[in-house]
Amino acid sequence: MRKILLFALALLPALSFAQGFQVNLGGQKQIGMGHTGTGLAQDGASIYFNPGAVAMLPENSVQAGISPLFFKSSFNPAGTNDVYHTANKVATPFSGYAVWGPKSAPWKIGLGVYTPFGGLTDWGRQWQGKYTIESLDLKAIYFQPTLSIKLADFVSIGGGFVYDIGTVDLQRALPLSDASGNDGQAQLKGHGHGFGWNAGVFFKTESHITIGIDYRSKANTTISSGDAIFKVPASLATSFPQPNTFYASIPLPATTSIGFGFYPTKQWTLALDANWVGWHSYKVLAFDYAQNTPTLQDTYSPRNYRDGYSLRAGAQFKPVDRWAIRAGGGYASTAVRDGYVTPEVPDANRYYFTGGLGYSIARKLDVDLSFEYEHLLSRTQTNIETQLSGTFRSNVYIPGVSLTYHW
């Protein structure tokens, strides 16, 4: 039983930011065009996609957007006809940007607040994997002050400091029953912070092609005093001391991107992006509890993630000045190796399709709408630590809206 308890308390999947947690919902125009934006200078979301392009923006602006995320997943345990489904919960990734600079100046400053990582999953308390996870709510919010400088008419550079705030709330059952037969419960919740940076360069060529290169660094998010809350039978209370806290450090990976913009006519904009995500930095997940007992020990769990990549393409058509129609799509590889797939986001290779509309409400005010459908390929796995075995099938639906005031 002791080994089972140590195993159940390892919190192995809870904070493992899989490829699926990299939501990339940086701006509605870019989402509508398949998440392309590294090689374009469209609006303040360039602070996120490529700060090197910010100095090329023709106007100052303030914008804010939200992209409600509906994650739908099912699990079919191996050898059965049972199917478990996640509850209908809505995550709310958001973004906000402000860009300013004198019109005659070769520089602009900006501030971005956005949520590049996050997830919300609820499997309930009656499913087969309840000892692995019942529910998880996590997010990482980035704050990025930015400076961008136009070195010449055809090239600009930019960079920003990143401060991130991460929060997590995980609940799971423990294989310990009280007199009424109810499982024990574990909850780990807390917040932490980390630091990083984002830098890019943007080129305009004589052949009417724009090129962008961007690098967002790794940010180690450290939770130094999270709350470890246990509800267990009274006879085991001394084995799970309360109050208790935990320490953990989780790497949010570096991303390298290159993008291209093509402008065949005044009405059309085409874009291509390629991204490489450095998940190799995520080797292990370790938790250090402030109070240990023979039952509750610190944990050390291998992850051994591999790097992931994505390929994206998108287009924008402006039939008239006030309207824009957008569409795109892409493919992203999983970072999670076989044997390490977990149900908080059952990660797999995925493809997606997007669309969007833009409309100028007034001379200085725009509204942008986007929608994304994302399909994760079904994945049959047996987790090497929890031995949870079966097939995951998942889809994601993401509408979005933003408002931009520009001058």
From TrEMBL:
Record-level Gene Ontology MF annotations: long-chain fatty acid transporting porin activity
A GO CC term assigned to this protein in UniProt: cell outer membrane
InterPro entries: OMPP1/FadL/TodX
UniProt-listed Gene3D superfamilies: Outer membrane protein transport protein (OMPP1/FadL/TodX)
Topological relation to the membrane, as annotated: Multi-pass membrane protein
Database matches in Pfam families: Toluene_X (PF03349)
Keyword Signal: yes
Keywords: Cell outer membrane, Membrane, Signal, Transmembrane, Transmembrane beta strand
Subcellular location: Cell outer membrane
SUPFAM superfamilies reported in the protein's UniProt record: Porins
Range of residues in the leader sequence: 1-18
Protein family membership: Belongs to the OmpP1/FadL family.
Entries under PANTHER family matching the protein: OUTER MEMBRANE PROTEIN NMB0088-RELATED
The protein, known as: Long-chain fatty acid transporter
Protein source organism: Mucilaginibacter agri
